[in-house]
Amino acid sequence: MDYKISVIGSTGSIGRQTLDVAENLGIKVAALSANSQVELISQQARKFKPEFIAMGNEKAAKDLRVALSDMDVKIGWGEEALTEAAAIDSADCLVTAVSGSVGLKPTLAAIEKKKRIAFANKETLVCSGEIMMKKVAECGAELLPVDSEHSAIFQCLEGRGKEQLHKILLTGSGGPFRGKKRETLENITPADALKHPTWSMGAKISIDSATMMNKGLEFIEAMHLFAVKPEDIQIVIHPQSVIHSMVELVDGTVIAQLGCPDMRLPIQYALTYPNRMPSRSEHLDFTTLKDLTFEAPDFENMPCLRLAVECAKTGGIKPCVMSAANEVAVHMFLRGELGYNRIYDCVQAAVDHFDGPADDIDVVIEADRAAREFVNKNFGKA
User: Fold this and answer.
1) 343, 324, 344: which is closest to 332 by C-alpha?
2) Distance between CA 43 and CA 328 in Å, rounded?
3) Can you give the pLDDT of all 382 residues of the chain as single tens digits?
4) CA nearest neighbour of 49 among 27, 17, 77, 16
5) Across the strands, what pairs with 54?
6) Rounded Cα gap, residues 156 and 249, in angstroms
7) Fewer Cβ neighbours under 10 Å: the N or C end of the chain?
8) CA–CA separation, 65 vs 51, rounded Å?
9) In whole angstroms, what is the distance from residue 162 CA to residue 147 CA?
10) How far apart are CA 128 and CA 224, in angstroms?
11) How far from 115 is each of 29, 84, 213, CA to CA, in Å?
12) Distance (Å, whole) CA 187 – CA 184
């Protein structure tokens, strides 16, 4: 394909799968980024020959320059370099595969360049959805979802006006602790929480899926992507992860998007839209499906999900504070510094502490910073 992409977060799960799709389709790569994974990104650079690479810190950038000293590639580091990689002129499309609020400024820069954005960094819309979607409309950029659920909703709504939509049915597997009481999860370890029943994902998103915070973030993301109210979205637990989401139309018709649980499918569709091309993904065999089951979410034992829906309804900086506090708490848990059930306690405390409108990107960035500081100060190791 005569098409170039930039992939920020190329060494993470979504980034690696994006490059797998790019290799299969013959898509060229203009820029890559990683935090500090020098060995992996150097391998990616040799295969895809980008013109620019952004690293998270100066040491990683220096080490990468040594590793790629025989290649003609520009290497930078820090926030400015990440933004440069995201908005590089030679790329037709940006794939935002970074996790957390670090994606805010790079995404905004790509929007201002009127690029197609294959969007996997849900925290950006959670933190600043109204700002971002307004900017997309003003600049004429194109925002296409990579999350399997939002890609499914997007596909189900294709060719239909918003007036035909009655309700979005946002599905989720329920994670590894579906059906468990919260009090029984007190001694859960990171290894336990990382064992997702159907999806293979990075560590942070795997923990978010265990706590169901990920579904809460997706709830808020769907509000902004599809310009709907919280009451227009219903969360449905679907353990088999075959139906990736559904929409109910005003006449009562329900349209679902099905497929094998493989993130390369929504990634590829975001890159090739509106066209469909052969992929390396398995095809769904209906004769092997014994049952498809559905249930309501257990908000009592999934308090992170309940909190996210509450923040969606309240708005302002609450969703941003929630997302930032959760990110810090999850990393504390992964390092063994915080109990599993305390993740929710951290996030709830931060949400209760902060309030205000989110009408400017600088306000959002400050709310993100303050929430992280709050959690580190009040829940971090002494």
Assistant:
1) 343
2) 30
3) 679 999 999 999 999 999 999 999 999 999 999 999 999 999 999 999 999 999 999 999 999 999 999 999 999 999 999 999 999 999 999 999 998 788 999 999 999 999 999 999 888 999 999 999 999 999 999 999 999 999 999 999 999 999 999 999 999 999 999 999 999 999 999 999 998 766 667 788 899 999 999 999 999 999 999 999 999 999 999 999 999 999 999 999 999 999 998 999 999 999 999 999 999 899 999 999 989 999 999 999 999 999 999 999 999 999 999 999 999 999 999 999 999 999 999 999 999 999 999 989 999 999 999 999 999 999 987 4
4) 27
5) 33, 76
6) 10
7) C
8) 13
9) 21
10) 9
11) 15, 13, 29
12) 8
CA 327 to CA 102: how far, in whole Å? 11
The first and second tokens of residue 298, run together, are: 């257990």
Q: What is the token pair recorded at 114?
A: 């009127």
SS3 of the chain: the string is CCCEEEEECCCCHHHHHHHHHHHHHCCEEEEEEECCCHHHHHHHHHHHCCCEEEECCHHHHHHHHHHCCCCCCEEEECHHHHHHHHCCCCCCEEEECCCCHHHHHHHHHHHHCCCEEEECCHHHHHHHHHHHHHHHHHHCCEEEECCHHHHHHHHHHCCCCHHHEEEEEEEECCCCCCCCCHHHHCCCCHHHHCCCCCCCCCHHHHHHHHHCHHHHHHHHHHHHHCCCCHHHEEEEECCCCCEEEEEEECCCCEEEEECCCCCHHHHHHHHHCCCCCCCCCCCCCHHHCCCCCCECCCCCCCHHHHHHHHHHHHCCCHHHHHHHHHHHHHHHHHCCCCCCCHHHHHHHHHHHHCCCCCCCHHHHHHHHHHHHHHHHHHHCCC
Which residue, among 219, 182, 222, 180, has the nearest Cα to 197 in the 3D structure? 180
pLDDT at 100: 79
Q: Is the whole-model pTM more than 0.70?
A: yes
- Contacts of 137 by beta carbon, 8 Å cutoff, 6+ apart: none
CA neighbours closer than 13 Å in the CB half-sphere of residue 126: 33
Specify the residue for token string 């708490």. Answer: 329
d(CA 169, CA 128): 23
